[in-house]
Amino acid sequence: MPQSPSGAEDPRRRIPRTDRLLALPEVVAASHAMGERAVRDVVRAAQDRARRGEIAPEAVTAAVLTSLGEHSASSLRPVLNATGVIVHTNLGRAPLSPAAREALQDAAGYTDVEFDLATGDRSRRGVGARAALLAACPAAEDALVVNNGAAALLLAATALAAGRDVLWSRGELVEIGAGFRLAELVASAGARVREVGTTNRTHASDYREACADPASDVGAVLKVHTSNYRIEGFTSEVEIDELAGIAHEHALPLIADLGSGLLRPEPALPAEPDAASALEAGADVVITSGDKLLGGPQAGILLGRREVIERLARHPLARAVRADKLALAAIEATLAGPVPPVLDALRTSPDALRARTDALAGRLGGRTVAHDGRVGGGGGAGVPLPGWAIALDQELAAPLRTGDPAVVGTVQGGACLLDLRCVPAEREEDLVAAVGAARELLRSRGAERRAEGTVR
Ligand SMILES: *Cc1c(COP(=O)(O)O)cnc(C)c1O
């Protein structure tokens, strides 16, 4: 650093000192939330900018406060989902209901997850979530919540069929997201997958013959909902009631993996299986999801006959896949609280969506175009949800994605489409502001480029 001219004070001496900045009330409050080290990093970064002459020494305090305001505790950024895909795997599947968010807050500290406050004794873990599940699905005698759907299937296969055969229709050997194959998951439990039937047609006689085959040692029969594809044309499958009859003739448990999380039939998705119907049809244990269509946190929910659920709960693997207190709290609140956003988005009428879309398209200078929504990950495969979207310039898609809040739409036919199905009405102003900011960014970049062009 060059010596400052004699008489003139070195401006760096006016940079606020670290201890003074750390003592500001806002900074003290932020260090409780973010931690001391993160706050010190922010302070040092602002001082360094002043030392390099990028900002005036007098601007350091403001720079620190701005950085602290923008700081978030995790690198996950909130997104406005304008894709029209309700259970979007890449966007965290289900947004939680206000009740579930509040429950997460309450459960974040110490909580009575395994403690009876009245007696002072240890209690069964997650009794509230279990009671809420049984109230929502009276056809189940018992319930167990684990980490996710895959964990539920792993636990059921391990506890009921390790070292033995699992009968499984060849038409139902699902590969789920990121290349995970359910048959490989079941095999990793030490069970042998025994495929029955063909890709398009599986008959009751296929299961019967496999059960009766003296060379086989069947531990369980598995029915898996083809949640992300449909087989059409010359097809047949064996429904749960008939399959339960066959399994029970041979004293075998029937596991039904529904993939999604409907506990009861959903009028908006008549073809989607639900836990109550599967249990009434005779399944011994049903695997459903906490987030996919239940609209709660990530979880795998096992519902079924008391002896079977107890057997699963006692298995050593149950401990390795158990749900944490946050998921248990959020499931209970999702079931007890208002209709979760996932079901709201599913049940939105095309007319209501059209009115919102027209109004916002007018404000944003876009066009209303027909756009089908989708259920997304793990449900309603191929079922279009008729609706609408706002069509804007395609070049807005990238700055919208990287804006704050991030807005994720789809690019189709040379336009950036924003579908309001999964955008809460109370976030519309944020969406309008985000589009304004994205346009502003494009304008200023355009101006920069033009300026460079004239210099050259
Ligand atoms: C999604 C899905 C799973 C896995 O559930 P995760 O909660 O994602 O682990 C299992 N089976 C089926 C049929 C599914 O659709």
Number of domains: 3
Alpha carbon gap, first and last residue: 34 Å
What is the spatial order of strands in the main beta sheet? 5-11-10-9-8-6-7
Counting DSSP H or I runs of 4 or more residues, the number of helices is 18
Looking at the structure, the CATH topology of the largest domain is Aspartate Aminotransferase, domain 2
Beta-strand portion reads 15-25%
Gyration radius, to the nearest Å? 28 Å
Kindly report the name of the CATH homologous superfamily of the largest domain: Type I PLP-dependent aspartate aminotransferase-like (Major domain)
Q: List the ions, cofactors and other small molecules found in this model.
A: pyridoxal-5'-phosphate
Mean of pLDDT? 95
Outline the biggest β-sheet.
7 strands, mixed
**Beta strand count:** 17
Question: In brief, what are we looking at here?
Answer:
It contains 18 helices and 17 strands. It has helices at 18-22, 25-34, 36-51, 60-70, 98-107, 127-136, 149-161, 182-188, 204-212, 240-249, 275-280, 306-314, 316-320, 325-336, 341-347, 350-364, 397-401, 428-455, and strands at 79-81, 85-87, 115-116, 121-122, 142-146, 165-169, 192-196, 218-224, 254-257, 285-289, 300-304, 367-370, 374-376, 388-393, 406-408, 410-412, 415-418.
